[in-house]
Design goal:
The protein is of the alpha+beta class. It is built from 16 helices and 44 strands. Helix content is 18%, strand content 29%.
Length: 1036
């Protein structure tokens, strides 16, 4: 009892349990040989398998069985894999089946699990086990987890011996030539399955263990009576290491390196020649990859000022912090309830740039002053050459108490006061990777709220589907003529979104109206808005409100697939007419649901950075990590003037990928800012785009009532799929802005980017064969116009959400990053798209020119070789298809030499921005409705009509050619049809009589005949086709 009572109190331990509820399946494949199946389910999690009961002879089985699993490490649950397989029970097949046939499987990951109370029923499409599997159907699951307290007194019984460590370890070879030993879950062998062979990989060099470096910090070189030797603290738990992603990021089975796992790096004997682009520094035999390996490390002196005690202060004391180059003051002190002015608190962190050659012999002076009287209350001084260095893996440096001292220099004089008390602070040297850097204040950043780097998250957006079915018992005005059918429409409003239905249809009952029309809105979390539906009678000129209903969006059912949602009746209230305000005005029949199976587009489709559905349960695991290092910018143009006409720019950078936005700190008053900040994103689809924009900060100088938008400097887009795996690209991109006056270069941005992922693993390659958008976009697609309207609403909601942050991300910044105006008309973009089409068809034009050169014998040797190749292909027709694919392969190998070396940015020539007409630019920037004079609008309209006439002519020519093909057998021209039909009969008889190879050789040689045997006039077949009639002569 005594020993147990001396143990320090611990937090109650919890055990996390995963609950998998198998509801049922739909439309399974018959596998018992009798047109049916007897399915059962096997649930596998963390090496433990559980089996459901068998439902006999049913392709739509219902189980409603629940399985529980223990989660050994909740911290790594998001990397665990849950596999659910469906089999046909051979025992129910009356001897027709020799094994348990596979009916499909579903793989889920811990990132898709929901806490208890937040789960929902989802139907997932069954997947194949191999390419040759024939699978169909869906399985309905409800998956959630919960934590329960553990009674430690029940754990007295010894646990069964754990299996040996090496039995669950396997070696995985990464693309950088390293061998990583990871723990994989053991699998119970199913009937008919085989365990994969174990491959042992050995190399001659010794094993090098990856360990974090530890730095021994020297004590402060301060006055002897102020500094005391601090006993070495107990080594804290090591925080999560910086992102070092295993080769198989997709599997997520390689749990984090913990007590039961080892990571070993085998060095190659002939040097590190693998495609590793991170130049890590070697320390002995160990290797460490720093967290900020894509950017240049920038050293800062950090001062964490906590509080003081025993000051001789009468007012509100503050602290001055200064070096030989920088100086800053703290904010006014705060006090705890009941404290005296002698014990102020600040809780601030300051960061000063630290340059070793310049500050090697400088001092850091920290002094306390009384605010009203400006009396000196004491200070401390540090030698910067002896300040300890802290690396990001280390825990934060503990603040210490230091005795305040007086001085005869700046501290003396008329303002000298009584020096007494202590101040608690810590001082260290770190880099921009330090945890304290984002919230620190600096002498060159007076507006802290607008100059610090921040990470933002877009709101979670849903599609709200409202099916308006019917309205009954509507009360109309008494003066309505009985022979006039009322025009009843329904108007739905959600926030700033408003949609109106078409006119309702009615039957014999004049008080009942039917629509069966879908209305779709964008709803954002938290779902605090109300859906308002107004029933209006628009028979007369002025609409009359017949009633309304208000529905909280939070009460609407959520669905993740296309399962049926029950409809409901809602009573109408209010309205006009002779009824009271709260009287019954009829009822409406609605079907409401929040669609979680769609991806709510807030970006243009061609530059989208995320295609995941709203429901987190439907997310696939990440396939890699995108790392971006924002180094800096060069040669920015001045955006504003300060002082005596001096040009200045206060620039910051914004990057957006998926739901995550990042904003760098604002560099004050420089045309060559250096940010050196690094960020990471999880990549779920490589066919996405990263957007990086640079802006000039105006809002930090504006008052609360004053609106000063941030000015755009330029942006760059990089498609992730164009990046090679695990390769660092460090490049400079021009920042271009299209203004009314033309294209203008605003400077250059320097970035480093890396896409860390396996290059050709099965799951990575399988992404290219999957649909781009979630499944619901194909089962119940949205119209193009409807989706564009919803994208505009989503953009407004994202901008409004990010504006409420601190510091706010300005609406003009969000709209610029999301390309909110990409759908607007532009003559320049129309020309660019036309030249893109011409470039796409250039290969066909080049092939036609090459064939024309061959048939004209421009190069006799090439023509003879083509004759020989043609003879071989005609005589051996089985070689045609493989020869074609071999030719495409050779083309791909040839063009590998000319592959892009760096990711492409904005292309001014492709955008037709260099040769654009000024009037066309002015039209592109003209808002809707136009604000230009009538003469300019008329001239632009005439120009648009001219362009439309050309398009009209091209469309007419295409229609004419198609109608001439139809006229071959339509007998619109009897003589031409007789000639064509007779020619077809003659060709058929010839082909029946003559071997086809001889006919093919004759036609080929006739086509490639020498020019001396040709005529300059068009051939008879071409003339015959041109003479066929079309319907153009019937147009009015």
């Amino acid at each position: 009892m005594t020993a147990s009572s001396s143990v320090h109190p611990q937090h109650p331990k919890t055990l996390r349990k995963l609950v998998v509820e198998v509801v049922g399946a739909r439309d399974l494949l018959p596998k018992d040989g009798q047109g049916n199946s007897s399915p059962y389910v096997v649930v596998d999690f963390d090496g433990h398998k559980k089996r459901s009961s068998t439902v006999s002879k049913n392709l739509n089985p219902v189980w409603n069985e629940t399985f529980e699993f223990e989660v050994h490490d909740p911290k790594t649950m998001e990397y665990e894999e849950l596999e659910i397989e469906v089999f046909n029970d051979k025992r129910m097949s009356n001897g027709n089946a020799r094994k348990n046939h596979f009916l499909g499987r579903v793989k889920l990951y811990g990132s898709q699990f929901k806490r208890k109370g937040e789960e929902g029923l989802i139907y997932l499409q069954l997947e194949k086990k191999s390419v040759f599997s024939w699978i169909r159907g869906e399985i309905g699951l409800r998956i959630y987890y919960y934590d329960e307290l553990i009674d430690e007194h029940k754990n007295d019984n010894p646990s069964p011996p754990a299996p040996e460590k090496d039995s669950a370890m396997t070696a995985v070879v990464g693309e950088d030539g390293k061998v990583v030993e990871v723990r994989v879950p053991t699998e119970i062998a199913m009937e008919g399955s085989q365990l994969p062979p174990i491959v042992t990989i050995e190399e001659s060099p010794p094993v090098v263990t990856v360990q974090p470096e530890h730095h021994d910090h020297p004590p402060y070189n301060q006055h002897p009576h102020q500094y005391h030797d601090v006993a070495p603290a107990v080594q804290p738990k090591q925080p999560p290491a910086p992102p070092q992603y295993p080769p198989e990021v997709r599997k997520m089975q390689t749990a984090r390196v913990g007590e039961n796992e080892r990571v070993r790096v085998y060095r190659k004997s002939n040097g590190d020649y693998a495609p590793r682009v991170i130049t890590g520094k070697l320390a002995g035999e160990s290797e460490k990859i720093p967290a900020y390996d894509l950017v240049e490390p920038m050293q800062y002196v950090f001062i964490r000022l906590v509080k003081a005690r025993g000051l001789a202060a009468n007012g509100s004391p503050y602290v001055k912090i200064g070096t030989s180059s920088y100086s800053v003051k703290t904010k006014p002190a705060t006090y705890k309830p009941g404290d005296t002015p002698a014990n102020p608190e600040w809780h601030q962190v300051f960061a000063f740039p630290h340059n070793k050659p310049e500050t090697a012999d400088s001092d850091l002076q920290i002094s306390v002053w009384d605010s009203p009287s400006e009396q000196f209350l004491g200070g401390v001084c540090f030698d910067l050459s002896d300040v300890p260095v802290r690396d990001p893996p280390d825990s934060p440096l503990a603040p210490q108490w230091f005795r305040l001292e007086g001085g005869g220099g700046d501290g003396g004089g008329a303002h000298s006061g009584i020096v007494s008390g202590d101040i608690q602070l810590s001082v260290w040297i770190g880099t921009q990777a330090d945890d304290a850097f984002p919230e620190s204040s600096s002498s060159d950043a007076p507006h802290v709220a607008h100059t610090r780097s921040k990470v933002y998250q877009s709101p979670k957006l849903w599609y709200l589907r409202v099916m308006v079915i019917e309205a009954q018992n509507l009360h109309f005005a008494l003066n309505l003529h009985p022979l006039i059918a009322p025009k009843v429409r329904m108007k739905a409003q959600l926030g700033f979104q408003s949609v109106r239905t078409r006119r309702g249809a009615t039957n014999n009952n004049a008080s009942s109206f039917f629509w069966h029309e879908d209305l779709v809105f964008v709803a954002g979390e938290p779902l605090e808005d109300n859906l308002i539906l107004l029933v209006e009678d628009r028979t007369s000129k002025d609409p009359v409100l017949l009633g309304h209903v208000m529905i909280p969006v939070a009460s609407v059912e959520q669905r993740f697939d296309e399962h049926h949602v029950a409809s409901k009746w809602f009573g109408l209230e209010g309205g006009g007419g002779d009824g009271a305000g709260g009287a019954y005005r009829g009822r409406i029949h609605l079907r409401l649901c929040l669609e979680g199976g769609y991806h709510v587009l807030d970006e243009a489709a061609h530059v989208c950075s995320d295609y995941r559905p709203t429901a987190k349960q439907l997310w696939k695991p990440a396939i890699g990590i995108l790392e971006l290092g924002i180094l800096g910018a060069r040669g920015l143009l001045p955006m504003k003037t300060k002082g005596a006409g001096k040009g200045s720019t206060d620039s910051y950078c914004v990057a957006k990928y998926g739901k995550k936005w990042i904003r760098t700190r604002t560099i004050i008053d420089t045309l060559d800012p250096r940010w050196n900040e690094q960020y990471t994103w999880q990549v779920y689809d490589p066919c996405t785009v990263l957007t990086i924009g640079v802006f000039d900060n105006w809002r930090m100088f504006a008052d609360v009532s004053e609106e000063k938008p941030d000015y755009r400097i330029g942006k760059v887009r990089i498609r992730v799929s164009t990046l090679e795996s695990n390769k660092v690209y460090t490049n400079s991109y021009p920042l271009m802005v299209l203004l009314r006056t033309g294209l203008k270069k605003m400077g250059e941005i320097e970035i480093a980017i890396r896409f860390a992922c396996p290059s050709l693993l099965p799951d990575t390659c399988a992404i290219y064969g999957q649909p781009l958008l979630p499944r619901m976009h194909y089962l119940r697609p949205l119209g193009v116009a409807q989706q564009e309207a919803l994208r505009g609403a989503a953009t407004k909601m994202v901008a409004a959400w990010l504006t409420r942050s601190e510091p706010p991300l300005a609406p003009e910044v969000v709209r610029y990053m999301l390309d909110a105006d990409s759908h607007a008309w532009s003559m320049r973009k129309s020309k660019a798209n036309w030249f893109r089409i011409v470039a796409v068809l250039a290969w066909a034009i080049g092939l036609a020119k090459w064939l024309d050169d061959i048939r004209r014998w421009r190069n006799p040797v090439t023509t003879v070789l083509v004759h020989l190749l043609y003879l071989v292909l005609v005589w051996y027709p089985d070689l045609i298809v493989p020869t074609g694919f071999l030719y495409i392969f050779l083309i791909g190998v040839w063009y590998y030499r000319f592959r892009p070396k760096i990711p492409a940015g904005m292309d001014t020539r492709l955008s037709q921005a260099e040769t654009v007409d000024p009037d066309e630019l002015d039209e592109e920037f003209d808002p809707i409705p136009s604000s230009k004079p009538v003469d300019i609008i008329r001239a632009r309209y005439d120009r648009l009509r001219t362009l439309a006439a050309r398009v009209q002519t091209v469309l007419g020519d295409l229609a004419t050619q198609g109608e001439r093909v139809q006229a071959l057998v339509s007998w619109r021209d009897p003589r031409a049809t007789k000639l064509f039909v007779g020619m077809c009969l003659a060709i058929a008889i010839i082909l029946y009589a003559v071997p086809p190879k001889m006919v093919a050789v004759a036609l080929g040689f006739y086509f490639l005949r020498h020019p001396m045997f040709r005529e300059t006039m068009p051939p008879a077949s071409f003339n015959f086709f041109r003479r066929l009639p079309s319907l153009s002569d019937r147009l009015i």
